[in-house]
């Protein structure tokens, strides 16, 4: 599944202290962090990501989602990339991620290329952040200046992944709270959800919605989606999150919501008579505003609790402490 935020069961509130801790960390990140230590890092990463997306266009959505899954668990520290060991509880193997999050091999490939030119300099966490930006640009989406200087964690937390990543069945207030706990506004949440203009989702995550006969789903849309998602089989069958322009990064996702054609429950709740209706409407009318806001919100998300300075390490292999 390539959904950006639909992955857990229960949202746990963070303390205000954690949010306050973001500010000094953010100040240490800079787009020019590697300008002297590895001046060709960004070009090298971009080439690697473009090649991966060229091979499989769906990978763009997967890489954006991978960065999101990293940042919402322990901050943007590449913890999601760590494999299971006797001392590490991998985030890869828990429900929100297993058989769902993808793109690990693309990040490892980019890391190998960067290691060839600047060994031990560029963190996996930064490669994740840059890869998300380059993936967006590769499919016609916005680009932005990525703040750099993150370091990699030596730990992971499957248990936090289970609780801090919002469920695909969350209501609007739960989603708003989940993002607020990470220092992101409701507008950020709606903008980031716009990444569902690309990517795919698995049948079991939207089955209840398309068979609900609810008033919040277009009947024709539901009928179309039922063809590839039987009522009692085909759990892993995929459907595009945007039926109209599934391979283009545009604002059609928001137009779909206004026509009751959101694939996931957590898509449609953004336009269901609640506080975010006006934002959806604005983005449906103004694609430039959406693209600009998406880039700005990705920058904010990338600044969630980074490890900087002497904290963390620079992994030479993203999947292991090295």
TrEMBL record:
<comment type="similarity">
    <text>Belongs to the peroxidase family. Classical plant (class III) peroxidase subfamily.</text>
</comment>
<feature type="binding site">
    <location>
        <position position="75"/>
    </location>
    <ligand>
        <name>Ca(2+) 1</name>
    </ligand>
</feature>
<feature type="binding site">
    <location>
        <position position="70"/>
    </location>
    <ligand>
        <name>Ca(2+) 1</name>
    </ligand>
</feature>
<dbReference type="InterPro" id="IPR002016">
    <property type="entry name" value="Haem_peroxidase"/>
</dbReference>
<keyword id="KW-0560">Oxidoreductase</keyword>
<feature type="binding site">
    <location>
        <position position="77"/>
    </location>
    <ligand>
        <name>Ca(2+) 1</name>
    </ligand>
</feature>
<feature type="binding site">
    <location>
        <position position="73"/>
    </location>
    <ligand>
        <name>Ca(2+) 1</name>
    </ligand>
</feature>
<feature type="binding site">
    <location>
        <position position="250"/>
    </location>
    <ligand>
        <name>Ca(2+) 2</name>
    </ligand>
</feature>
<feature type="disulfide bond">
    <location>
        <begin position="71"/>
        <end position="76"/>
    </location>
</feature>
<keyword id="KW-0964">Secreted</keyword>
<feature type="active site" description="Proton acceptor">
    <location>
        <position position="69"/>
    </location>
</feature>
<feature type="domain" description="Plant heme peroxidase family profile">
    <location>
        <begin position="28"/>
        <end position="322"/>
    </location>
</feature>
<keyword id="KW-0408">Iron</keyword>
<dbReference type="InterPro" id="IPR019793">
    <property type="entry name" value="Peroxidases_heam-ligand_BS"/>
</dbReference>
<dbReference type="GO" id="GO:0046872">
    <property type="term" value="F:metal ion binding"/>
</dbReference>
<protein>
    <recommendedName>
        <fullName>Peroxidase</fullName>
        <ecNumber>1.11.1.7</ecNumber>
    </recommendedName>
</protein>
<feature type="binding site" description="axial binding residue">
    <location>
        <position position="196"/>
    </location>
    <ligand>
        <name>heme b</name>
    </ligand>
</feature>
<comment type="function">
    <text>Removal of H(2)O(2), oxidation of toxic reductants, biosynthesis and degradation of lignin, suberization, auxin catabolism, response to environmental stresses such as wounding, pathogen attack and oxidative stress.</text>
</comment>
<keyword id="KW-0732">Signal</keyword>
<feature type="disulfide bond">
    <location>
        <begin position="124"/>
        <end position="318"/>
    </location>
</feature>
<keyword id="KW-0376">Hydrogen peroxide</keyword>
<keyword id="KW-0106">Calcium</keyword>
<dbReference type="GO" id="GO:0006979">
    <property type="term" value="P:response to oxidative stress"/>
</dbReference>
<dbReference type="Pfam" id="PF00141">
    <property type="entry name" value="peroxidase"/>
</dbReference>
<feature type="binding site">
    <location>
        <position position="245"/>
    </location>
    <ligand>
        <name>Ca(2+) 2</name>
    </ligand>
</feature>
<keyword id="KW-0575">Peroxidase</keyword>
<feature type="binding site">
    <location>
        <position position="242"/>
    </location>
    <ligand>
        <name>Ca(2+) 2</name>
    </ligand>
</feature>
<dbReference type="GO" id="GO:0140825">
    <property type="term" value="F:lactoperoxidase activity"/>
</dbReference>
<dbReference type="InterPro" id="IPR000823">
    <property type="entry name" value="Peroxidase_pln"/>
</dbReference>
<feature type="binding site">
    <location>
        <position position="91"/>
    </location>
    <ligand>
        <name>Ca(2+) 1</name>
    </ligand>
</feature>
<comment type="similarity">
    <text>Belongs to the peroxidase family. Ascorbate peroxidase subfamily.</text>
</comment>
<dbReference type="InterPro" id="IPR033905">
    <property type="entry name" value="Secretory_peroxidase"/>
</dbReference>
<dbReference type="GO" id="GO:0020037">
    <property type="term" value="F:heme binding"/>
</dbReference>
<dbReference type="InterPro" id="IPR019794">
    <property type="entry name" value="Peroxidases_AS"/>
</dbReference>
<feature type="binding site">
    <location>
        <position position="197"/>
    </location>
    <ligand>
        <name>Ca(2+) 2</name>
    </ligand>
</feature>
<keyword id="KW-0325">Glycoprotein</keyword>
<keyword id="KW-1015">Disulfide bond</keyword>
<feature type="site" description="Transition state stabilizer">
    <location>
        <position position="65"/>
    </location>
</feature>
<keyword id="KW-0479">Metal-binding</keyword>
<feature type="disulfide bond">
    <location>
        <begin position="203"/>
        <end position="229"/>
    </location>
</feature>
<feature type="binding site">
    <location>
        <position position="79"/>
    </location>
    <ligand>
        <name>Ca(2+) 1</name>
    </ligand>
</feature>
<feature type="binding site">
    <location>
        <position position="166"/>
    </location>
    <ligand>
        <name>substrate</name>
    </ligand>
</feature>
